Amino acid sequence: MSATAKTMPSRPRKLRDVTQWDRETDVVVVGLGGAGGCAAIEAADAGAEVIVFELASAAGGSTALSSAEIYMGGSGGTRVQRACGFDDSTEDMVTYMMLSAGPQADEAKIRNYCERSSEHFQWLVDLGVPFKDSFHEERAIMCLTDDCLLYTGSEKAWPYVQQAKPCPRGHNLQVEGDNGGPLLMRILLEQVSRRDAITVEYDTRALTLIVDDNDAVVGLVVRQDQKELNVRTRQGVILCAGGFVMNEEMVRKYAPMLTKGNTPIGNPGDTGTGILMGIAVGGAAINMHEGFVSLPYYPPADMTRGIVINDKGQRFINEDVYHGRLGAFVLGQVAERIYFIVTVEQYGNYEKVSYLGAPVAGTGETVEELEQELGLHPGTLQYTLAVYNEDCARGEDSLYHKAAEWLTPLEPPLVALDITPGRGAFVPYFTLGGLDTKPSGEVVNTQGEVIPGLYAAGRTACGVVRRAEGYSSGMSVGDATFSGRLAGRQAAQAPRR
Amino acid sequence: MSATAKTMPSRPRKLRDVTQWDRETDVVVVGLGGAGGCAAIEAADAGAEVIVFELASAAGGSTALSSAEIYMGGSGGTRVQRACGFDDSTEDMVTYMMLSAGPQADEAKIRNYCERSSEHFQWLVDLGVPFKDSFHEERAIMCLTDDCLLYTGSEKAWPYVQQAKPCPRGHNLQVEGDNGGPLLMRILLEQVSRRDAITVEYDTRALTLIVDDNDAVVGLVVRQDQKELNVRTRQGVILCAGGFVMNEEMVRKYAPMLTKGNTPIGNPGDTGTGILMGIAVGGAAINMHEGFVSLPYYPPADMTRGIVINDKGQRFINEDVYHGRLGAFVLGQVAERIYFIVTVEQYGNYEKVSYLGAPVAGTGETVEELEQELGLHPGTLQYTLAVYNEDCARGEDSLYHKAAEWLTPLEPPLVALDITPGRGAFVPYFTLGGLDTKPSGEVVNTQGEVIPGLYAAGRTACGVVRRAEGYSSGMSVGDATFSGRLAGRQAAQAPRR
Predict the structure, then answer these.
(1) Which of these, A349, A366, B48, B300, is most buried using a 10 Å CB contact count?
(2) How far is residue A469 CA from its own chain's centroid?
(3) Cβ distance B459 to B242 under 8 Å?
(4) Is this structure's pTM higher than 0.90?
(5) Residue A364, beta-bridge partner list
């Protein structure tokens, strides 16, 4: 190819311009992370011949980099939920996930996810994914023991708790330390390698889709060993190429709010090419502005007893929410500084185990002294703390509804951490927009019409998760593995061309 | 056409499927509002033969429904600015508009808009658009006299005032009452009709674009008298078909935040078809989640002396900002109620001239009584008002930086208006997302590559305005007329095919 004819994901190749086929198979999967692995396995188990193309030299995607908690429950509970005495219901799970996703929720997708969640659990178990029948009670972002079940979202926090019975749905793999992702991918890969119908080709970049005269997707152009190869598919292409968090220009253009974060979460391949290839053949991209931005302020769980204030000395959220929800609200404040106020004792615990890395902005033997040190308007923090401590004494947060279990008066000496994004605290972020798909994984155009031969799953699609303020850990890997499976099965059922 | 072969904006027609041409011209313009009118005039003046297709039975679009203030200035000022003693600078205008648009600002587009703004003023004057050399000093959403110049944004409010020298840039047409839009469109239409090179066809719906084998746009399919016509263009199609505020499904999918408004602002043709046609041929759609949502709480200007609080009794914004900025902040609050607190005297003025229509939520002979009536936590409003009134006495709003001219203590008896969106107040909204274009009006794909033969202007494109919180009146008609002109000129310069 000449330099001027660079193949771009923004322009499909026309079938009529294909002079030879270098590969041919039933189903092509782009990307071998959690979504791609599950898609390949299901497609193969449904009788399809599959080639998976992976950009990197090894499999894993962002799933391998994650804790791989998996958000599951509903319909009476998974085996683990039941063993731990939790009786989950599909309706509570649907309600919680609908609230989480907000006005842009895809109800059909969420309902399908919740209704088939226990079955998904069993499918994973059958593959060999180990879950221990145990409950991790302490508030945590991830479970560092081999225990399984934990609360990973805002289920017990206002306003969710008012509308859906809380239930822990985060399922941590039975492995010590933060090693769930590598384990999950190892198991998926072993399952992939056991299936003769699946071929994996690494170090291969997907360049663009191939479309026929009716704009149906009939193949994929890849680059391998510096050569472009045309790959013909008889049943379809499944895009499992991750999101676009590593593509700075796309983030700036589509999700500028995320630039307030400082640590993109994902693998280097998360450059949006899957999404761009889909857009180029008419796929609708939705929710592109949304992302996860978080202030992981716990552990220690004890931090939940602190309060978060803006530079007016006002609280603005119940501090027992999920850290992503807190992050979303912090970003929504028009304030030059945001502080986390804790006692000296709480600060001591924080220093030992925190991920947050927020610098100390001030300390005070009295509230007045802290107020002065932070440059707050005189009396504002004193007033906020007077109301808060009075509420703590009564056991009811009258303004922001933090649960009673976290209400203990904040008595000086106090420490203020500067959690303003951009001022030192760890603010991870990733994208939550992607191709619009049916629950089946079929990619649709702006009118909701299916684009024949094209599927998407995981972060390349816009899945059940729609915004940081309603996120719960485990929803990403849950969605990736579940949506990957559905897309794999759907593609394998398409008539062969 | 059979029912199953309905022509949709989501799928282009292939040139090879066109069996006959029903029309042929240099440049096709879709939509005869402010953008389309200016595009047609400029294209004709640059030597092109033009056909304009308008869905409605008459011209006008959303421009005719607007006040048609036009945001102009920079480079020493327009004739009116200079006559009124204002010495505007391009850099101040750029700085203000960049802050307004926020992180998703298109600097090239804004700079071009500001640098050529005085020239645009002169172009309008030369067409016959009348502007009186007078300044309307009172704070207003629109000017009901025939005076010209007024502050239409947040130029004098914090934080803008800190970074750019304020200057009024809203130019109201010389006409009594709220009749700027009809007058502007009458003048543009007269100019259109004077040009033999322009043909206008009404009652004609644009269905989809026609693309050749290289995905260049070479024509447009329209429906007229229940027949589909294929229109060949030698130079290009300019989409000036408005936004998508009237397409409920698109709003729900792309800009769900807007559903908190209750009054879509636009014409019935604002169904997004221009944007959808562009997406279907690979055009990038950006900023689709953003829109204008406003609480038009002035006039009377005196309302600016009131304070806005959430259901925690806290202020959260300086109340001297543009009403769109206030609206954006109200929507960002997680509060079950938002109140506007005014004195009985201010309420009396409000009752007489308000657009807002917010119901009274409570009244109080004392602050305590009002607090109780609103069900606020005891003491919160009392504290907020104590701080505020003390600040007013000192002449400095220490928390939110409302300008000193609006700081007068709020003394009981007080009235609280319920301005919670969805509770009776007038909350107009419109969309601010659209096709990504170069400043020239050329539509680009996700990689920034030009789609040959395709242009967009006005609300169909994503213009200089990017969000409600930084909006100023006059930016929409300013952008529509200016971007329409540029697209018309650019298309007319393309080589004829």
Answers:
(1) B48
(2) 12
(3) yes
(4) yes
(5) A414
Residue B398 to residue A377, Cβ atoms within 8 A = yes
Q: What is the pLDDT of residues A355-408, one digit of tens each?
A: 899 999 999 999 999 999 999 999 999 999 999 999 999 999 999 999 999 999
Q: How many CB atoms are located within 10 Å of the residue B407 CB?
A: 19
Tracing tokens 């004098």 back to the chain, one arrives at: B156
Cα–Cα dist A474/A154, whole Å: 13
Size of interface A-B (CB pairs under 8 A): 105
Q: What is the pLDDT of residues B373-429, one digit of tens each?
A: 999 999 999 999 999 999 999 999 999 999 999 999 999 999 999 999 999 999 999
Residues in a beta bridge with B130? none
Residues of chain B with pLDDT under 70: 1-5
Question: CA A462 to CA B352: how far, in whole Å?
Answer: 48
Query: Which helix (H) or strand (E) element contains residue B257?
Result: none
Supply the Cα-derived Rg of chain B in whole angstroms: 24
Which residue is it, tokens 């005085």?
B118
* Whether B455 contacts B93, CB under 8 Å: no
* CA-based nearest distance A266→chain B, Å: 21
Distance CA B338, CA B342 (A): 13
Residue A450 has which token pair? 């299916």
Query: Considering CB atoms only, which of B282, B377, B387 is closest to A280?
Result: B282
Task: Determine the pLDDT at residue A72.
Answer: 98
Distance CA B439, CA A455 (A): 35
Top residue of A446, A449, A460, A469 to mutate, by most chain B CBs within 10 Å, is A446
Give me the interface pTM, i.e. the ipTM. Answer: 0.93
List own/partner pairs for A348-351 with CB under 8 A and 24 or more apart. A349/A300, A349/A302, A349/A303, A350/A300, A350/A302, A350/A303, A350/A417
> Cβ–Cβ contacts within 10 Å for residue B214, how many?
10
Choose the closest CB to A10 out of B290, B399, B449: B449
Residue-by-residue DSSP string for A250-282: HHHHH-GGGGG-SEE-S-TT-SSHHHHHHHHTT
- Helix H or strand E encompassing A317: none
Spatial separation of the C-alpha atoms in residues B175 and B172, rounded to whole Å? 8
Residue to test with chain A: of B4, B8, B10, most A Cβ within 10 A: B10
Nearest to A239 by CA among A201, A199, A191, A277: A277
Among B160, B172, B170, CA closest to B92: B160
Distance CA B440, CA B455 (A): 8
